[in-house]
Write a structure and sequence with these properties.
The complex is a heterodimer of chains A (389) and B (325). Chain A has helices spanning 2-16, 19-39, 59-68, 85-94, 128-157, 165-174, 193-206, 209-223, 225-231, 236-266, 273-297, 301-319, 330-336, 340-352, 357-387, and strands at 48-54, 77-82, 99-103, 120-122. Chain A is mostly helical and 389 residues long. A 4-stranded mixed beta sheet of chain A has the order 2-1-3-4, with helices on both faces. Chain A is elongated and about 105 Å long. With 325 residues, chain B is of the alpha/beta class. In chain B, the strands form 3 sheets. In chain B, strands 6-7-8-3-9-10 form a 6-stranded mixed beta sheet, sandwiched between helices. The two termini of chain B are 24 Å apart. Chains A and B meet through helix 1 and helix 9 of A and helix 2 of B.
Chain lengths: 389, 325
């Protein structure tokens, strides 16, 4: 045990004397997380400035405006009216509003059974989410209008006099479509950007520890100190354990620093500190396993550096460290499940939105453990093959 | 020339290698090498580059498994696993194997901890080794700030922290400046005198002659000869040459010398006729007799030169190649 601690302490001392290691594992993730927090600070609460062009001037169009200004959407949607579509187009183009809804002339009349042009949404590529919201509100409202039209048409077909159509239409408008969709299992708290990108950047930079660890091994081999350790009464297991302990401690310290600073200085929040600790420990163990894998695959310091960089960038690109998982394609979201950082981020996201305990970190911990075990199995196989003459 | 002859304790051997063999693919690096070292004995493994010295040393230190044969240190088997025999071995690799970003003291302390020295004893030993290698004033300096010679000394010191019974030095003077080389050789002489068994590989025959009680000559993986430097030299059927510069009755003196049993030839020479050249067996032991004879004949000896056959000649004789080829 004394040899294990001696090797681990020596490795840690060397790493802490390496300024680049300080920058990469401690300083850079904190700075980048801070920058992201500042950049996305206003986006902690989603807002949409929407324009509306009422060319219909009838009750149905007024109804849509009322929906947009309803108490449910207050605080999220800010509405500005425009007289003409061209004015609304200009407002969208200049960013005055994020999107605009154009209600065509005759829209209310269509309730009486006539045809009409569709309601249009003017959007901007810069505000995709806001345009989607405008479209969703409009489609929801149009669906209600269509239901009203169907009610009136049904009544007329059943023999109601045509003179009663306005009254029937008014009564139908009072009836709401049943709410088929109600969110279930979604968290109550919105996810803060820093709560996602803090650990995300922490993991990204801690993954560079793979390169440090693997390179360190080959540097020691080259300078002969590994032989010197092997000539001492130190078993291979103790050597491996000592080096693993140092990589583990270093990785964990990096993750802990970033999450702590994110919480203390940038108001990141996670529902369960123990969950955060468990995910950090699991990721640090995984970094140790990946370091061993890289060592087993290569023969030189340069190869170790190259392969470690490939591994790091492949993992962070697939795992979603640079973008919110929700903003990626289903394929990428599936691929993220093959990465430990993807699983960890899933856990951090749940913790950041108020989910606690095993519900938040159970699946991620199992995912990271499965990945780590696979890496260990492949490493053991490679080392065995290497030893076979 | 040769180190003073000590009397090693041959009753309990520190190192016993029996029939060591190791192949790398089709190439045989070490072939049936057996050697032993007693306490206080310095054994030189002499051979050119690629002869199998380093492979032998790696097997002795448990860094490499032999394909055949055994290694025992103080009766304990050596293997690549962490056996108790490794506690007794101090390994000094050919290249400086230290951590350049750690201080001198931190390096010594780290290698000492690998041998599980208790904290107090470790600190005491580190101080002792710092004195021994004369780096006490640089203890807190990083290794990468030391000169090449200092690093070499520290490289040896790192193998001594745990007070090994057997010190294994793999060509410790390669690429070293003369001053540092002298210091290293002095240290190795002292280790032997203090009772440590030393296995020393070199391809410098002067070092082997100066340091070693016994020498094994290794060539193409095989130990082709073994013995004290004198014994090895005796394998070569050459004789020593003695050159005496003198004044007095040199004709009579030369004739008298010819009559001595171990003198095989004698002749006068020199630009001024003041030189007597003799071909003798074992000049060193004959020298007192030659001086007594000069005194008896009233010849005043001004200088004596002895040319002895050396290990270079032995190596040439045994392998057909020069040592440094």
């Amino acid at each position: 045990m004394s040899a294990v601690l001696a090797i681990a302490a020596k490795d840690l001392r060397q790493r802490l004397r390496d300024r680049s290691a300080w920058v990469i594992v401690f300083l850079a993730p904190v700075l980048i997380s801070a920058l992201m927090a500042l950049a996305f600070n206003d986006n902690d609460e989603f807002r949409a400035n929407l324009g509306i062009v009422d060319l219909d001037r009838g009750p149905a169009a007024t109804g849509l405006t009322q929906v947009l200004r309803s108490p449910e959407l207050q605080g999220t949607v800010h509405v500005r009216s425009y007289d003409a579509e061209s004015a609304a187009r200009r407002a969208v183009d200049t960013g005055e509003v994020h999107a605009a809804i154009v209600v065509p002339e005759g829209f209310s009349q269509s309730l009486h059974g006539g045809g009409t042009e569709p309601v249009r949404v003017l959007d901007s590529v810069d505000y995709g989410l806001q345009a989607q919201l405008a479209r969703a509100i409009t489609e929801s409202y149009v669906a209600q209008v269509n239901a009203d039209r169907l009610s009136v048409a049904t009544a007329v077909a059943a023999g109601a006099p045509r003179t009663d159509i306005p009254e029937l239409a008014a009564r139908a408008a009072l009836l709401r479509l049943p709410e088929e969709v109600r969110t279930q299992g979604l968290p109550d708290d919105p996810l803060k950007v820093i709560s996602y990108f803090g650990p995300s950047m922490g993991m990204f930079f801690v993954l560079f520890t793979i390169g440090f660890g693997a390179r360190g091994y080959f540097i020691e081999q080259q300078q002969g100190t590994l032989d010197r350790i092997a000539a001492a009464p130190v078993g291979r297991g103790a050597l491996l354990l000592g080096k693993s302990v140092s990589t583990f401690v270093y990785s964990l310290a990096g993750l802990a620093t970033v999450t702590f600073v994110s919480w203390l200085a940038f108001d990141a929040s996670w529902a369960d500190p123990l969950g955060v600790a468990a995910l950090s420990v699991a990721m640090a163990v995984c970094v140790v396993c990946l370091t061993a894998l890289v060592i087993s695959l290569v023969r030189t310091e340069q190869q170790a550096q190259g392969l470690a960089s490939i591994v790091v960038f492949a993992l962070v690109l697939l795992g979603g460290n640079f973008v919110f998982a929700s903003g990626t394609t289903p394929a990428i979201r599936t691929l993220a499940l093959f990465t430990p950082n993807g699983w960890a981020l899933r856990g951090f996201t749940d913790l950041g939105t108020g989910v606690r305990g095993w519900d938040a970190v159970g699946a991620p911990l199992l995912g990271i453990a499965a990945f780590s075990l696979l890496v260990v199995a492949v490493t053991a196989l490679l080392l065995r093959l290497r030893r076979t003459p | 020339m040769n180190a003073p002859v000590r009397q090693p304790d041959t009753t309990r051997l520190v190192l016993e290698c029996a029939h060591l063999a190791r192949r790398f693919g089709q190439r045989t690096a070490v072939d049936d090498v057996s050697l032993s070292i007693a306490p206080g004995e310095t054994y030189g493994l002499l051979g050119p580059n690629g002869a199998g010295k380093t492979t032998t040393i790696r097997m002795v230190c448990g860094l490499l498994s032999p394909d055949a044969g055994t290694v025992h240190v103080a009766g304990r088997p050596v293997s690549t696993s962490a056996g108790p025999a490794k506690q007794l071995i101090g390994f000094v690799p050919q290249d400086v194997a230290l951590y350049p970003d750690l201080s001198v003291r931190e390096n010594l302390r780290f290698f000492g901890r690998l041998y599980r020295l208790p904290r107090r004893r470790l600190e005491r030993r580190v101080d002792e080794v710092l004195d021994l290698i004369d780096l006490g004033t640089r203890a807190r300096d990083r290794v990468d700030s030391l000169s090449g010679g200092m690093r070499r000394r520290l490289n040896i010191g790192a193998g001594l922290v745990h007070s090994p019974t057997l010190l294994v030095l793999d060509e410790p003077t390669v690429g070293v400046d003369p001053q540092s080389r002298h210091a290293i050789l002095e240290s190795v002489t002292r280790f032997g005198e203090e009772g440590m068994a030393v296995l020393y590989t070199t391809h410098y025959m002067e070092e082997a002659e100066r340091l070693c009680d016994r020498v094994g000559i290794i060539d193409r993986g095989r130990l082709v000869a073994e013995g004290t430097p004198r014994e090895l030299v005796a394998l070569v059927a050459e004789r020593d040459r003695v050159r005496l510069t003198a004044v007095g009755g040199l004709g009579a003196y030369t004739d008298a010398c010819r009559r001595l049993a171990r003198v095989e030839g004698a002749a006068r020479g020199g630009d001024h006729g003041d030189l007597v050249e003799l071909v003798v067996k074992d000049a060193r032991s004959l020298l007192p007799e030659l001086l007594d004879l000069a005194h008896a004949l009233d010849v005043d000896i001004r200088s004596v030169e002895i040319d002895e056959p050396d290990l270079e000649a032995v190596f040439l004789h045994l392998t057909g190649t020069a040592l440094r080829e």
